[in-house]
Amino acid sequence: MSALINLRATETADFVIKVEQLSKTFGTRCVVNNLALRIKRGEIYGFLGPNGSGKTTTMRMLCGLLTPDTGKGICLNYDILRDSNKIKQKVGYMTQKFSLYEDLTIRENLDFVARLYHLPHRQERVWASLEQLGLSTRANQLAGVLSGGWKQRLALAACLLHEPQLLLLDEPTAGVDPAARRDFWEQIHHLSATGMTTLVSTHYMDEAERCHRLAYIAYGNLLADGTVQEVLDGSGLTTWVVCGIDLWQLQSQLKQLPAVEQAVAFGNQLHVSGRDIDALNTSLQSYQQDTRYQWTLAHPSLEDVFISLMQTAQDTSL
Ligand SMILES: Nc1ncnc2c1ncn2[C@@H]1O[C@H](COP(=O)(O)OP(=O)(O)OP(=O)(O)O)[C@@H](O)[C@H]1O
């Protein structure tokens, strides 16, 4: 019996976030529905789903900014219902909107955040943070004149200053160029290697692929989770790639066929997908014999899978 209890304690200790039956309703709208999440220490966990699917609401419930209507669990070994104040102190939360002072310099912003947290050795920590995030040479620039990429780097520095154990990043790279997004993700992986756990919401597929694990939610319901490969394998989706002439016309015809769930243009190709492989192949047979087109069986992309999940999702929020 004691061995069993020890095993359970170890299992829980491995998870920085372990919650179940998490729900939240605003008015009559259920925006998070019976959600369960398990995230291990050091993991980069991606949170994907269409606009309004409940990602931000879930993050806010995890870090104690919002009280769930139902549900239970732990975050950083604290009870999410009872210990929200303790959780807040150990979490770095980066919101979608740049929330620092545009008329203060980078250094002044970090100094301000350090004061808010009553951090000891404030000056040293601010300079160490500037150094760590590659911001030293811009320390005296006003935050308001920074590009999107530098603003987001400053926001990350600010939410790391109090040395949190968990990062909750809500669409941290929205509107940021690919090079800056790549730098940002290098930082997240570097932090992960030091044991930092990150839950990050994003709409970018390349970012989803950079996560160790991910979850896809729609209408507040968890529709898939796992590694990228597990999510792809679990989709049951078959995808054909077709090249040829007049693809625009072909696309509109294919969309009418039974078992064709998606026919989407990607450059000079169409991705044609469905979950019932036999019915899909029957529908496509005559087109595949047409010499104007070249068909190749392909692995579905994450985007194909997410769109398919979204199409089959039920709106249970009303
Ligand atoms: N405080 C609130 N009061 C009422 N409704 C809210 C509140 N906060 C969020 N909502 C609603 O809850 C739903 C889920 O919102 P949420 O911000 O969690 O979604 P999201 O998945 O983060 O969306 P996005 O990808 O656009 O950021 C939306 O319909 C939103 O309008």
From TrEMBL:
UniProt cross-references to InterPro entries, sorted A to Z: AAA+_ATPase, ABC_transporter-like_ATP-bd, ABC_transporter-like_CS, P-loop_NTPase
Tagged with keyword Manganese: no
SUPFAM superfamilies, sorted: P-loop containing nucleoside triphosphate hydrolases
A Pfam cross-reference name: ABC_tran
UniProt domain ABC transporter: residue ranges: 17-244
MF annotations from Gene Ontology: ATP binding; ATP hydrolysis activity
Source taxon at top rank: Bacteria
Keyword Membrane set for record: no
Swiss-Prot/TrEMBL keywords: ATP-binding, Nucleotide-binding
Protein name: ATP-binding cassette domain-containing protein
Gene source species: Beggiatoa leptomitoformis
